[in-house]
Specification:
heterodimer, A: mainly alpha, 434 Repressor (Amino-terminal Domain), 5 helices, B: 70% helix
């Protein structure tokens, strides 16, 4: 699964630490998601999308 | 409680347990070391709940879950091999004596040369326990690496 978290963070001028705090995970989890090492749960994916105020499919793109 | 204080506490508990273990051997009081071990684990468990700067999220939970499951999958086979071997030796099943009946407790260790001694069983159990810990740590490191624990980026 690809994601555009880095892009959305850059637009809002957020650090990984800030996003991690907002969605209640560790910074390392945000790093792992951004680098594609870890696919978040639906709950976390929706939390991140809601934080950026965009639909979840804009942040996460499913690749079969 | 801070994370480092918690790790320090674990070290202290381990040290105290070592002293109690030594004292128990010297005085042949095995209940002391068993009781102390349980109390030590409870102390660590309660202290772990007080740690404030350790973030537990879904990724760390997944790493723990996967490592625990894999450890269990491997360990139950090893433990079954050990248990079957020990029980077979204790009950002398390969000989199939006529009128076989399970031995009485006092008969269990009658012929120490033929069957595993309680000390050997103790060493083997301890070995299996160590193996389980190593397996868990190994699987944990593997899954932590797989799920990006040590990935560094530009920030």
């Amino acid at each position: 699964m690809k994601n555009k978290i880095k892009v959305f963070r850059a637009i809002r001028g957020l650090r990984q630490e800030d996003l991690a705090r907002e969605v209640s995970v560790s910074r390392q989890t945000i790093v792992a998601i951004e680098t594609g090492k870890y696919d978040p749960s639906l709950d976390l994916a929706f939390k991140i999308a809601r934080f950026f105020n965009v639909p979840v499919e804009e942040v996460f793109v499913y690749e079969a | 409680m801070k994370k480092n204080s918690f790790y320090l506490l674990i070290g202290c508990v381990a040290l105290v347990l070592l002293v109690i273990f030594w004292y128990s051997i010297e005085n042949s009081i095995h209940f002391l070391t068993e009781g102390a071990f349980i109390i030590g684990v409870v102390i660590i468990y309660l202290a772990r709940r007080q740690v404030t700067d350790l973030v537990e999220d879904e990724r760390s939970a997944k790493i723990t879950e996967k490592a625990a499951l894999r450890t269990l999958q491997v360990f139950w086979v090893l433990f079954a091999v050990f248990a079957i071997g020990t029980v077979t030796a204790l009950f002398r099943i390969p000989r199939f004596p006529s009128g076989f009946r399970p031995p009485r407790p006092e008969e269990l260790f009658a012929n120490a040369g033929d069957i595993p001694s309680p000390r050997l069983i103790g060493y083997l159990s301890l070995g299996l326990l160590c193996m389980m810990i190593f397996l868990y740590v190994g699987f944990r490191l593997y899954y932590a690496r797989k799920y990006g624990e040590w990935v560094v980026d530009e920030e």
